[in-house]
Design brief:
The chain is mainly α. The chain folds into two domains: 3-124, Alpha Horseshoe (Serine Threonine Protein Phosphatase 5, Tetratricopeptide repeat), CATH 1.25.40; 129-247, no CATH class. Helix content is 61%, strand content 0%. The protein has helices at residues 3-35, 38-51, 56-69, 72-84, 90-102, 106-115, 121-127, 132-142, 151-157, 177-185, 209-217, 235-247. The relative contact order is 0.08.
Length: 252
């Protein structure tokens, strides 16, 4: 055999062995996974993922193993790796957002919402109704408040929310579009808008019309022809508005 052919034969043999070993390691992980030995499977998947850094399939298996083993922090590390890879799987971001919320990591919650794609916003709106608690958490995230604070009490102190006449906060009350307009307008300084726009769902005689026009002029909310004041307020609209308040120094 000519020397050059012998050289390439050796290269192919070694490459094939290495590829087979990598594939075999993943297959071994799958065997452990199917038998319910998630600890062994996680070890195999971890070693495989180091060698095949761009393989997303193994990360899904690895995350599921950590969930079944109750190793939450390691599972979150896998999800964060998906985010670093700019994953298009909305479930990755939903899992992380719920985790940050359970930990009262308000800035982490905002960080997740900043990273989601426009196509994911509708799913987040559906999964997370905008309650007084959630609006307060977004406010704390925008203000970079530390852990340990009661978000609704903080939002009340900031004048964004209010206590009810009986002294309670009713954190889980769901906010409507009209509620959100009134809450956001409370953060604006007194001024009369220069421009007025027709809004199908809000009469110019409505108590919501002037606050809405003020928010539009300040760039806190856009003109939305589909606005439904009595419908639940979308989470992502509130997130955008809270960030606008922060950028303009109205949340500190």
């Amino acid at each position: 055999m000519p020397r050059c052919h012998y050289f390439w034969t050796l290269i192919l043999v070694f490459t094939s062995c290495f590829f087979f070993k990598r594939q075999n390691e993943f297959q071994h992980g799958l065997e452990f996974y199917k038998r319910g030995d998630f600890e062994q499977a996680a070890g195999k998947f971890t070693r495989f993922s180091v060698k095949r850094a761009q393989n997303d399939t193994v990360l899904y298996y690895l995350f599921d193993c950590y969930q079944r083993l109750g190793e939450t922090e390691k599972g979150i590390g896998v999800l964060e790796e998906f985010v670093r890879r700019k994953s298009s799987d909305v479930n990755v971001y939903l899992h992380l957002f719920r985790y940050r919320q359970r930990r009262s990591d308000f800035s982490g919650m905002s960080g997740i919402l900043e990273k989601i794609r426009p196509s994911m916003r509708t799913r987040f709106n559906a999964e997370f109704p905008l309650t007084r608690q959630l609006l307060a958490e977004l406010t704390c995230g925008a203000a970079q408040m530390s852990l340990g604070i009661d978000p609704v009490s903080y939002a009340v102190e900031q004048g964004l929310l209010f206590r009810f006449p009986d002294g309670n906060l009713y954190e889980q009350d769901t906010l409507t579009g009209g509620n959100l307009i009134i809450a956001l307008d409370s953060k604006l300084p007194p001024f009369y808008p220069r421009h007025f726009y027709a809004v199908p769902a809000i009469s110019s005689h409505s108590f919501l019309y002037l606050p809405y026009m003020r928010l539009v002029e300040y760039g806190i909310l856009p003109i939305d022809p589909d606005l439904k004041p009595a419908a639940p307020a979308p989470l992502m609209n509130a997130f955008d508005a809270i960030n606008s308040l922060r950028e303009q120094g109205l949340i500190k």
